[in-house]
Amino acid sequence: MNIEELRKKVLEKTKKEVKERLAGREMHIIKAVNTLEDLDSIFNTLFEDARDWYSLHFPELFQLVKEPEKSLALIGNITLRKNFKKEEILKYYANEKVAEELEKKAKESAGAELSTEQAEALQELAKRALEIRKYREALADFIEKEVQVRLPNLAKVAGPILGARLLREAKSLKKLAFMPASTIQVIGAEKALFKHLRKGTKPPKHGIIFQHPLLRKVKRENRGKMARALANKISLAIKADYFGKSDIGEKLIKELEEKAKQLS
């Protein structure tokens, strides 16, 4: 075989490997979770902008309504203080006590009046932010279904969204499957780990697996133990998904729940 033929074969093999990698469902999960986090960031920015702007008109709204989606729904649909009547508020915020208080505060507020153009601009801002939030929830549903189908054991043990984030940080299913549990435990805490190695500070107990509800349930002093147990089970789950068809997710999550009880 001459050099030209060898070069062609190497190129063909490389193209095939790249095509297979890019076509894999895992890459769609990774791209989707990146988009999900971008949408979270955009929504948070728009909500903060809407809150700061609308506070010029009715600052008391945010003292009574803490949920961003609910306050945006009120801004986008009622907008002007004079329109904050109990029956109208209840269409978008089903809490009679708060609705009564909002109607009262709207009458007493010392906030500035809004022109028609200002009110319309605020309405649009609130509605666009809510549209982004709605799409974010649809995308989260897509990710959950993809992870449950592709990585059923990981989905049961870590949860679909956390599982997708671990996959994204590892950059591929293969890399995640071959990672030791100790590495999985601190994924997302690389800065703290680097600081520990350089300056001798305390090593991080966990990275993004802290988002797992069971880890948050245990006592603070036991979170290191729980993080190790969780990372071990995630490692077993992802290996089962990568290497075969073993259905061990239910067993692993039950063991973790029992561990969490012991450490709570």
Explain what the structure shows.
This protein has helices at 3-23, 25-54, 61-64, 68-77, 86-89, 96-108, 116-150, 152-158, 160-170, 173-178, 181-185, 190-199, 213-217, 223-243, 249-263. By secondary structure, it is an all-alpha fold. It has two domains: 45-136, Helix Hairpins, CATH 1.10.287.4070; 152-264, Orthogonal Bundle (Serum Albumin, Chain A, Domain 1), CATH 1.10.246. Helix 2 (25-54) runs antiparallel to helix 7 (116-150). The chain is elongated, with a radius of gyration of 25 Å. The N and C termini lie far apart (66 Å). The model is unreliable at 18-23 (pLDDT under 50).
Number of helices: 15
Distance between the termini: 66 Å
CATH class of the largest domain: Mainly Alpha
Mean pLDDT: 89
Assess the beta-strand content as a share of residues: under 5%
The general outline is elongated
Unreliable stretches covering 5 or more consecutive residues: 18-23
Helix fraction bin: over 70%
Radius of gyration: 25 Å
> Biggest β-sheet, characterized?
none
Class derived from helix and strand content: mainly alpha
Total DSSP E strands: 0
CATH architecture of the largest domain: Orthogonal Bundle
User: Which topology of the largest domain does CATH recognise?
Assistant: Serum Albumin, Chain A, Domain 1
Number of domains: 2
Question: What is the H level of CATH, i.e. the homologous superfamily of the largest domain?
Answer: Nop domain
The sequence of SSEs as H and E is HHHHHHHHHHHHHHH
